[in-house]
Amino acid sequence: MKKLNFIILLLMTGGSSLWAQVATWNIMDKSMGNNWNQNEGSTTKQAWTSYVGASVKGSTSIIPSADGWINITKVGVGSTSHSALINSWDMKLESGTPYTIEIEARVNPIDKTQYPDESGVGYESALLSTRINKKLTDLYVRYNDDSDEIDADKAGYAYLAAAFDPAEEDRYYLDISQFHTYCFVLSADNSVYDVYIDGELVFEGVPTTDMDSNTDIVRVGANIRNRCNVDVRHVRVGAGDFYSNTKIVSVGLDRTTQMEAESATVQATVYTAKIADDEKLQVALVDEDGNVVVAPVETAVTQNKAVAKLTIPDTVERGVYWVEASAPNGKIGDVEVGSKMAEYRVLNADFYGKNLVTFGNSITAASGSWAYRVRDLLGFGHLYNGAVSASIWYEREQRFDDGTIVRTQDYNDPDFAGITSQHYDGMTPSEWQKRVNNCAVVHVQKYLEERKKMPVENQTPDYIVFSYGTNDPVDFRGDAKETLAAGSLSEVDTYTTAGAVRWCIDTMRMVFPDVKIFLCLPLQTSESRGWNANNLIKIEVLKELCEGLSVPYFDCFHESGITTGNAAEYLPDGLHPNAAGQVMQGEYIARKMEEAMDATQTGLDLLAKVEKDVAVSSTLLDAGQLLSVQTLNENVSLSGVALYSVSGNECYRTLVSGSQYTFRSPMEAGVYVLTVYLDDLTEQEFKILIK
Predict the structure, then answer these.
(1) Contact 98, 240 (CB under 8 A)
(2) 207-217, pLDDT tens digit by residue?
(3) Pick from 47, 31, 29: which is nearest to 39 by CA?
(4) pLDDT (0 to 100) of residue 32
């Protein structure tokens, strides 16, 4: 539907939003011809700037046209620093206000014979985007590869996700070779946006994405490793939701979680469009099936906003719920108004308000990664994310032709050079020093120092999750059995993955005896990356170490839902999860953490171990600490205990009777095997770590 027809339809039907008559472009009204990068004497016509990444400078052009538009063409994809964009000035916008953004643009075809699309990276996709109040709105526009098989007026499509092959239902077809008005209407709480094209509603209620940026800008071009050829003629921004009809736009909450078995009061702010003052709305808590859990409270609209307080009792069980805002009987006057909801969670008391520490590589370090998702899903009070891009588990060395050898430093070395993820040809020894310092061993050392500067309540972690391995060369994986058999950490080879894993886990346990530690196995990658075969080899080593050290592991490779088959959807570059992939990985890890904790609710300490009819007081002990063994079946008694080193040497053996026996653990640190004999002629084994 074209813009003129949209206006006529509103006039004929008595539509409540004649946007063309009331739109006020009080923030930006900028023509993008020869003056695109010049201030024109008005606050709404300031200069735009350009950004071209270092790796695509030679394959990008930004050229104004005498006909009144600017062209951005990018055909290179680069490997890092690969975006090419034109950016508006910082508009310095206020929160709590809806905004309408119009971008007049057309998209030109990329020569596919010279620059063919590549699955996951290097495909044509022009980006129209805003960053406002640290929230991101995106719309991608590209040519349809099957344009010969459809009508000429549907030669391309607009879509929302940064995906190589978006689902058919997520595409809106149009003739993108003509200028169109692409419009974002951002809600007052900046949580969702609607997309209109030439006045027609195309996508409604799209969630915005968190963006760690302090500038409020409009940007057009090609982000990530995409190509584009796009003309931009005019950009307008105004305070207001000029396109909207009568509706509830969004629901904002002053809190989104509470701990199980505790009551809480949540304040819901309901943002509306074209609903008159004093009209009544109601707010209730509902479950995932729409059943009312907490009865609705009534609230009135004032200046397109309504506020209600909803008390959620301590009887509401752990789970996912929704705070729903609706109009009585679904109508305002004679106009049907749909409800809107905001997610609300009642969370596991094991995690709520606790301290979480995560370590890993770029997949963990990324903004919005699984680490942040887990923090929010489980309600952790504090997150320390010690992940660094390009990192590996183990310490390493770099040899140069002149005989110079650079080895990983300790973080506390007086001349510690720092940590970097950079890697390029011609790196000097001093630059390589920072590179070889980028490993889990150093990350742990760094954390142990940095925690001392934190508020006291955050200095002791309750949970630690390690997630390395993808970048580790398979040839340096080490041997799990040899590593577990080492008597003390001084005997562990931290220049192997296996040695670094044990060093990191045991070091954290020695400093924080009560901490719960988990380990994530690497994700699958795309076939084009070709890393999965080696990842599987490394995974076997990691699993054996976790089993030997009594550390639960999460099999992200097989169980996260991200696979080689759907890599194009979740791994745009074949390796790093996009926003949807981050959500999937985060939800998987959060679920596994809950399962791990639920499995330990036996009345024993987390470090206690239960096997069938037998329990031991702890599997992690200080040297010389007392170790208790007890039967859990009143029909079975103890008949003996024996303790061996991992190498098989007997350290302790005695005959016993009764349901419980306590003895002193060895004075030498290491991994031991405890065998418990029962009078029914069965036996149970436990791995014990002495620190």
Answers:
(1) yes
(2) 999 888 889 99
(3) 47
(4) 94
Strand order, beta sheet including 516-520: 382-385, 355-360, 463-467, 516-520, 553-554
Residue 369, Cβ neighbours under 10 Å: how many? 23
State how beta strands 340-347 and 319-326 pair.
antiparallel
- 583: part of which helix (H) or strand (E)? helix 579-598
Beta bridge partners of 643: 652, 674
Per residue in 105-117, pLDDT tens? 999 999 989 998 8
User: How distant, in Å, are the alpha carbons of 132, 133, 367, 481, 644 from that of 213?
Assistant: 9, 8, 11, 47, 56
Contact (Cβ atoms closer than 8 angstroms) between residue 359 and residue 465: yes
Taking the CA atoms of residue 112, residue 115, residue 118 and residue 123 in that order, the dihedral angle to the nearest 10 degrees is -80
Rounded-to-integer distance, Cα 597 and Cα 685, Å: 22
| Res. 78: pLDDT tops 80 | yes
pLDDT of residue 265: 98
CB 324, CB 281: distance < 8 Å: no
Task: Report the alpha-carbon distance of residue 440 to residue 327 in Å, rounded.
Answer: 53
What are the residues whose beta carbons fall under 8 Å from the beta carbon of 639, sequence distance 6 or more? 655, 656, 657, 677, 678, 679
Q: 218, 182 in Cβ contact below 8 A?
A: no
The pair of structure tokens assigned to 665 is 């653990």
Task: Give the C-alpha separation, 604 to 123, whole Å.
Answer: 55
Q: For residues 575-594, give the mean pLDDT.
A: 95
- Per residue in 143-162, pLDDT (tens digit) is 987 644 545 567 899 999 88
Farthest-apart Cα atoms in the chain, separation? 96
- Report d(CA 33, CA 104) in Å as an integer: 12
Contacts of 462 (CB under 8 A, 6+ apart): 351, 354, 355, 356, 514, 515, 516
Predicted local confidence at residue 119, as pLDDT: 77
Is residue 364 pLDDT above 80, yes or no?
yes
Q: Give CA–CA dist 461/375, Å, rounded.
A: 13
Model confidence at 602, pLDDT cuts 50, 70, 90, reads very low
Asked if the model's pLDDT at residue 529 lies above 50, the reply is yes
pLDDT given for residue 427 in this prediction: 92
With contact defined as beta carbons under 8 Å apart, do 538 and 616 qualify?
A: no
Angle between helix axes 532-549 and 497-511 (nearest 10 degrees) is: 40
Query: Residue by residue, what is the 3-state secondary structure of 406-436?
Result: EECCCCCCCCCCCCCCCCCCCCCHHHHHHHH
Mean pLDDT (the chain) is 90
